[in-house]
Known about the structure:
Radius of gyration: 23 Å
CATH architecture of the largest domain: Up-down Bundle
GO molecular function, one term: D-glucose transmembrane transporter activity
GO cellular component, one term: plasma membrane
Transmembrane segments: 7-27, 69-92, 104-121, 127-151, 163-186, 192-214, 279-302, 314-335, 342-364, 370-388, 409-432, 438-457
Shape: globular
CATH topology of the largest domain: Growth Hormone, Chain: A
Keywords: Membrane, Transmembrane, Transmembrane helix, Transport
CATH superfamily of the largest domain: MFS general substrate transporter like domains
Membrane topology: Multi-pass membrane protein
Amino acid sequence: MDSGKQLSGTLILAVFTAVLGSLQYGYSLGVINAPQKVIERHYGRALGVLQNVSHSDNATEGLPHPTVLMYWSLSVSIFSIGGMISSFFVGFVGDLRGRVKGMLAVNVLAVTGGLLMGLANKGVPHIMVIAGRAVMGFYCGLSSGLVPMYVGEIAPVAFRGALGTLHQLAIVSGILISQVIGLDFLLGNDALWPVLLGLSGAPAILQSLLLPLCPESPRYLYIKLGREEEARKCLKRFRGEYDFSKELAEMKKEKEEVMKEAKISIVTLVRLPTYRQQLFVALMMHLSQQFSGINAIFYYSTAIFYKAGVAEPVYATIGVGVINTIFTMVSVALVDRAGRRTMTLIGLGGMCCCAVAMSVGLVYLSTYSWMSYVSMAAIFLFVCFFEIGPGPIPWFIVAELFSQGPRPAALALAGCFNWTSNFIIGMCFPYVEALCGSYVFTIFAAFLFIFTLFTYFRVPETKGKTFEEIAAEFQGRRGRRPPIPAATELEQLKSSSEA
């Protein structure tokens, strides 16, 4: 029986259980969007300030009190601080007691964060929500690393790519679910908004019930702990009856390579000129993902649609979630055919054009009523182009740019860079929007134009190339590099999840 050509019931259960953490991550990303005005009113009452809410199209009017605006921005962006910090601890948590027990342990954070937000009306709402979002962000930083680590290690080779993409698909599905149940007539209203936020921790409860049924990663058991017999039993549960000798021999070889391979710290990586060009490209690609303006759309799309004159902005936001989910699946089918660099160029260039169109639509909305359709179409296309390339590619191209030694440090640094950029956008966008008004997306258009040029001139195509071939493109003028030991599969999976 060929272990690489089957999907057992135990494997399906384990993957489903693991990506519940990804679903929770996506839900937490999107849940803060729809009930924005409702939550701002509660903040205003708790703080004892009067909000100046109007329906004017003037972007300088209709803003909440500055104190409310500050607390709201912090409620949105504090989520990224938790993720930024915890992204460095994924490897430690995953190795301490194993992948399954690691996911089970961090669920305590998810439930705690959900309770803090769910009980917001019982205390000081702005403090409770901010605390809950911070704890949930810390959970999501860990979960977004542990989930792909576990799924990648247990998946058969023939299905590893398909099963690996379920992490991203679960994230965008979680965003969509949060948008739907955040509708005013469901949970996004004055009475039930704490329940809406509190449900961020609900998938953790289901996952905690299912995780004890899931076997531990055989690769972790054999390579990290040296427990061959336990690894053999887990492989049997995942694959069924077959000859384990070949797979166990591969694990043995991986373990030998892991013991030989020296790792490079983050400080050393930053200081070494040998890897400086790769690091610059990696960090710029993550910067392009966040400073493209995509999270301004995800976090504030309802408010943006309202300014664009859309009669039911919440439903338009849900449409963005549907498009996001569909094009995540489309990008999976295209990226290995068209190539990473090509897809990133198409995505960034398309987003740049959409950002310009969005700005034009907002500026001339008061003159031409049909400009609301231009703005709405631009937002939908903006999300489509993002998922084609700039969304998924920066995460896995970093692993392709670096060999085994510097890869863990590079991915940890890239992950921290990504979460930090996410925080800056979440915190600053309301203030920049208040300052620039309808012209706010011209700033993102300028960033996108610069990132498109950078990708064209500096980012190599990595599809189908070895680490040595990729390194040669960067280091050709520096002379021949010392040979790098072959990268091992388990460490690639572990290090790629560090970000």
